[in-house]
Input
Amino acid sequence: MLMVDGRVQAEFLKMCIPHPRMSKAHRIYDNLRQMKILAPNKPQRCACLFAPTQSGKSKTVETYIETQIVDELIAEGLFPPDMDRDEIVKQQRRALYVTLDGAATVKSAVSDILLEFKDPRATLGTATSLLGRVYDYMRRCGTQILFLDEIQHLDDRQTEKDKKPKRAAMYESTAVTDTLKTMLIRGLVPIVFIGVDDAESMILGDPQLSARCVSKIEFESLRDDVPEERDIFLDYCGMLGIKLHQHGLFDEASNLIEGDLPAVIHRVASGRLGMASNLIAAACSIAREQRAPRVLREHVSGAIDEWAIPMGHIDYNPLAQGLRDYERRAA
Output
């Protein structure tokens, strides 16, 4: 059984590996904010980021706030340059990152936003009164963009075990999306909707929201038969091996692009960068327990056996049994 290494998990949480898709997403966030700045009282636009879990969706937002937003705030003199950057992230309200609670209603969604403003009465009052407080906070704090994560929670109560729609839940979900549309129309703030693939229809299936969507940000699983996407994955694995050394986890950099390792990591992770990191984090735990100077092939193999297979991410070990024929051809 895999022994979790707290140091490894902590360093992976702090780790950031930029890649082309992340950079493109950040440019879209910049453009949405520019619309807000140049036309503050006009109806705002939205963007969507839908992808499988562990694709790096949340990481791209966190990195944007930790870098672009924090740098701006320091440059404008709103925070001292020697202040802890994590503390600036907590205190700033220019970019609001909200994770929706399960089974979201209008009131709970608005309460989630108020919690990010540290409102002590975030859950007290009617949905209408809470929404009024959100409007007030955003105007007073100069909020320029709202990131709404786990948007699929708008759909949590729409289906029962037999997958048949519940009328009350469908009404509640529609009420939430109508509230979000109103926020856009009133020019309050641009919104980036973030969620798993299944959530796409909730946003883009609404004619008014889809008409206001300026971009569907590409963040799907990277395909190994598309050269550009394969290169992104290879570069990510290469940098990940270097980061393990830079973050003090090992004495030497790890070569994660040697031989068939990239193809195997890709297969286990199904092309998801976040899942690839999770696999290597497990390999790090094994390597550090063995006091190895770097992560080796054998440690990745152990991570597949002790973590990936038990967690249901794959049902065999490609390093021990070889990539199956169709996977070998794709690699």
